[in-house]
Design a protein that fits this description.
CATH architecture of the domain at 216-336: 5 Propeller
Low-confidence stretches: none
Largest sheet: 5 strands, antiparallel
CATH superfamily of the domain at 216-336: Glycosyl hydrolase domain, family 43
CATH class of the domain at 216-336: Mainly Beta
Mean pLDDT: 97
Helix content: under 10%
CATH topology of the domain at 216-336: Tachylectin-2, Chain A
Oligomer: single chain
Radius of gyration: 19 Å
Strand content: over 45%
Amino acid sequence: MVRPSRPDLKVVGAFNPAVIRHDGEVILLLRVAEAPSVQDSEVAAPVYDADTGRLEIRKWPRDAKSVDTSDPRVTVVDGKTWLTSISHFRIARSTNGIDFEIDAAPAMSAATAYESFGIEDPRITLVDGTYWINYTAVSPYGISTALASTIDFRTFKRHGIIFPPPNRDVTIFPEKIGGRYAALHRPMAGEPGEQAIWSASSPDLIDWGNHKYVAGARAECWDNFKIGGGAVPFRVRTETHDGWLAIYHGVSAAPITYSLGALLLDPDDPAKVIGRSSEPVLQPEAEYERSGFFDGVVFSCGLLAEEDRVRIYYGAADGVTAVADLSLDEILAGLV
């Protein structure tokens, strides 16, 4: 059970965790979504006010003509969009990777104007003894990617926005490539354009450039609508494959379904795709994946790769966290 952070909020989801091993434990950094407890006649939006440093609850009559509640994730009032929940990060700890104890208090919450609608979908990359956490920062300014760091998962240092709006689904590689840090990211392009995976590089993890298109949606395939990043890439060296394996999410249309696939990227150039999953490695099948806050979703921000086993931690239907053990050999065999 995940406890709410304060009495007037209720937990509506604990999902899309980052994962890492630290001091003999498996650490999950859970995205915990909370919504205000309101009367049936009302709709509400939780908003962090950076000027006061407080979380405020905005409320409107549900039946007002200016209020649109057709999407459960947002409330539109007079054409302005508000989120129906706000997310923070909560730490869960385990010795076996299955049974977790969840901290009662948030580890990280909204703290700046760029996070006034919450912080979402963290990823953790260990580089030279420091755990770097990139995450989605949501606000009226748009959806951007911010960076924080920790060495002990008790105190966290924020480093600000590293990819401005609209951009999300960033994954930072655990090693330098060609003497520079590398990352995958997903600019949220409008028309013309597509929501695709791009690569970037940096001298210091803060300033990013050298942006290159990596991969996009494929017509008449399981990821025909849009794609984006997933878990932090890891290096694969076998007799038949050598490169960075990135588990990504792909979305199909009619109906909208989020599944997971794999990209094998060149070891020296992460913008070059060597192989790609012809079929999903994981797709919504269980009831808790097909039905929830947002139906038909499996979405991963973290995994543990150990020998032939790839243990993927993922959000199901934007509500709960699940885990699946996949075979590395089978993932590689499905690449084309």
